[in-house]
Design a protein that fits this description.
- The protein is an all-alpha fold.
- The chain folds into two domains: 13-47; 49-99.
- Helices cover 78% and strands 0% of the residues.
- The protein has helices spanning 15-20, 24-45, 49-97.
- It starts with 14 loop residues before the first helix and ends with a helix.
Length: 99
């Protein structure tokens, strides 16, 4: 049985379709449905969009506050260790260079 239609070249997707991952209308419909489900669940849990945004901002602020404190402590540990390590290293290098 012969093919009635020769092998068709698949249609190339536009840049917009490649970026969105499908046709724009299909993506909009999927996003609307997903937004509806997520909004319903958030409402059932008593979460408001403003609470989520404020929580995210506060999380970022606390990360900066605590994260920078961690780097300060890390710097303190490095300097404290260097007080012993650098002189010992220097003495070892001096002793090896005299051989």
């Amino acid at each position: 049985m012969s093919d009635q239609y020769p092998d068709e070249i698949p249609r190339r997707r536009s840049t917009l379709e490649r970026f969105l991952g499908g046709s724009p209308l299909g993506v909009i419909v999927r996003l609307l449905l997903l937004s509806l489900v997520v909004g319903f669940v958030m409402n059932m849990l008593g979460l408001r969009p403003q609470d989520v945004i404020e929580g995210t901002v506060e999380l970022f602020r606390s990360f900066l506050r605590d994260g920078m404190g961690m780097f300060r402590d890390l710097g303190f540990y490095i300097v404290t260790g260097a007080v012993l390590v650098v002189p010992i290293w220097f003495l070892v290098r001096l002793s090896k260079s005299r051989r």
